[in-house]
Design brief:
Length: 429
C-alpha cells in the first residue's frame, strides 16, 4: 500500500516525470477511475501513444482505425494541421482569462459564428455538453417560473443531475438515482416512421401537462447514448407546433447530432424548425478541447435576465480558437458529400450483418451506423473481434455502432468489415 492509500502525505519524489509504456497501464489500474466503469476496472483500457488522421497507435504498436471519432467529436480526424496552428497561435496571446467582466476575440467570434449558423442570437459558452443542458434547463425554469419538463423515452442528455432527470428513467444508465432526481413527464419513444396514433398521444400528453411545463427537451432525429434510435422529423415539427400553441419552450439537444453528423448541419434542419434553446458540444472543437454552448432566442435571453451560472473556464480562449478553426474547416470541406459517401458505405457494408441470427436490426443515418443485437453484447469480446480487424469501437448495451470521422475515406470498409465480423460472433436470439 502506497503513502496516498495509507493516508500519509506523499513526499516530493511522488511527483514524477513522464512514464514508460508499461508504467502507464499499471498506474492507470492503481489511480484512474474511468467513465462508466467500476474500481478496479474489470477490462483494462488500452494505452494510446499517438493519434494521427483517423488512426490510433497503441503502446504495443498496434494501429487502429478510430470508428468512434473520440466519442463523436473528432470529425476532422486527429492532429489536423489547421487545428494545431489555431491552438499554438492562440497560445502566444493567452491560454485563459476569466469571462466575468472580461471578453476576448476568439469567444466573441465563435458566438457570432454560432448565431449565424443557427439563427439563435444569444450564446452562453460552457465546458461540456452536460453543463450546456443544465444551463438550458435553468433558462427554461427561470423564464417560465415552472419546474417540469416533457421529453421522450430513450433519450440521453448527460450525466449531471438536471441532465440525468430527462434521460430515460427505466432503461437509461441513471436508474440508480431515480429516487433523488426530479420527476418529469415522459412520452413514448417516437417511432422511426410517422404514426398518426403516436402523434395524437403526444399532442394529448403535452396538452394535459402544458400548465406545469417549462419546456419540451429532445434530441433531434437521433437519440444518441440512449440507444442510437432514429425517429421521423415530423415529430419535431409537431413538438414545435405544440410548444407554440401552449406557450412552452422547445429545447433541442444537438450535442451529438450537430455539425453534420446526420446529413444536415443540425438535426432540427431535417424538420425545418428552430428551437427556443439549443445545446451544442462534442464536435464543436473538432475533438480537441472540451467546449459546449447553449444558444437561445432574444426573447428567452431578455426574459431570463441575470442567468446565475458561471463556469470557471467559460469562453476559454484556446477552446474558442480551435472551435473557430474547426467550424471554418467544416465550412470549407465538402462535408455533405463526405457524409453521403459514409452513409452509402455504411448501408452497403453493414447490410450482410442484418442476416446474422444475433442481430435484431441494422440502421444507418448520415455518418452513423448501428448494429443492434437481440441481447446485450459482451463488450470485451466484441472489441477483441474488431481490433483483430484493425478497428477501434466502443459497444454499449445491445449496440455495436460507429460514428467515424468525416475524413475516414477508404478506411470505412475496414470498419464495416469489422462490425460485420462482430455481428457474426453475437449470440443468436
Amino acid at each position: 500500500m502506497g503513502p496516498a492509500a495509507s493516508g500519509e502525505r506523499p513526499g516530493p519524489d511522488a511527483f514524477a516525470g513522464p512514464l514508460a509504456g508499461p508504467d502507464v497501464a499499471g498506474l492507470d489500474r492503481e489511480h484512474v477511475w474511468h467513465p462508466y466503469a467500476a474500481v478496479p476496472q474489470p477490462v483494462p483500457p488500452y494505452v494510446v501513444s499517438r493519434a494521427r488522421g483517423v488512426r490510433l497507435t497503441l503502446a504495443d504498436g498496434r494501429e487502429l482505425v478510430d470508428g468512434m471519432s473520440s466519442w463523436w467529436a473528432a470529425i476532422h480526424g486527429y492532429h489536423h494541421p489547421v487545428l494545431n496552428r489555431a491552438l499554438t497561435a492562440q497560445l502566444e496571446d493567452m491560454a485563459h482569462v476569466m469571462f466575468g467582466g472580461l471578453t476576448h476575440e476568439p469567444a466573441v467570434r465563435l458566438a457570432r459564428t454560432l448565431a449565424d449558423m443557427t439563427g439563435l442570437p444569444k450564446v452562453f459558452l460552457a465546458d461540456s455538453g452536460s453543463v450546456a443542458v443544465e444551463v438550458a434547463i435553468k433558462m427554461a425554469f427561470q423564464l417560465t417560473g415552472r419546474s417540469r419538463l416533457l421529453t421522450v423515452r430513450g433519450g440521453y442528455h448527460g450525466d449531471t443531475f438536471g441532465a440525468m432527470s430527462v434521460c430515460d428513467p427505466v432503461n437509461g444508465m441513471h436508474h440508480l438515482f431515480s429516487g433523488v432526481l426530479p420527476e418529469h413527464v415522459f412520452a413514448e419513444r417516437p417511432p422511426r416512421e410517422f404514426d398518426e396514433g403516436y402523434a395524437g398521444r403526444l399532442a394529448e400528453l403535452v396538452a394535459r401537462h402544458a400548465g406545469e411545463l417549462a419546456a419540451i427537451i429532445v434530441e433531434p432525429v437521433v437519440q444518441g447514448a440512449g440507444g442510437m434510435h432514429f425517429y421521423h422529423p415530423a415529430y419535431l415539427r409537431l413538438l414545435r407546433e405544440l410548444a407554440d400553441e401552449y406557450g412552452v419552450l422547445l429545447i433541442v439537444d444537438e450535442i451529438a447530432t450537430g455539425f453534420g453528423r446526420t446529413g444536415e448541419l443540425f438535426g432540427c434542419d431535417h424538420a425545418g424548425i428552430r428551437p427556443d434553446i439549443m445545446c451544442l458540444g462534442k464536435a464543436l472543437t473538432g475533438g480537441y478541447l472540451s467546449l459546449a454552448a447553449t444558444l437561445c432566442t432574444e426573447r428567452v435571453a431578455r426574459g431570463v435576465g441575470v442567468l446565475m451560472h458561471g463556469p470557471t473556464f467559460m469562453g476559454n480562449p484556446l477552446a474558442a480558437a480551435v472551435a473557430n478553426a474547426s467550424l471554418e474547416l467544416l465550412r470549407e470541406r465538402p462535408w455533405r458529400e463526405e457524409v453521403r459517401r459514409i452513409e452509402a458505405g455504411l448501408t452497403a457494408g453493414l447490410a450482410p450483418a442484418a442476416a446474422e441470427p444475433g442481430v435484431r436490426e441494422v440502421r444507418v443515418l448520415g455518418a452513423i451506423g448501428v448494429i443492434e443485437a437481440h441481447e446485450p453484447v459482451d463488450v470485451r469480446a466484441v472489441q477483441e473481434v474488431v481490433m483483430r480487424h484493425g478497428v477501434w469501437l466502443r459497444p454499449f448495451g445491445r449496440l455495436v455502432y460507429t460514428m467515424p470521422p468525416y475524413s475516414v475515406g477508404d478506411d470505412l470498409r475496414r470498419i464495416t468489415t469489422a462490425m460485420t465480423a462482430a455481428a457474426r460472433a453475437l449470440e443468436p436470439a
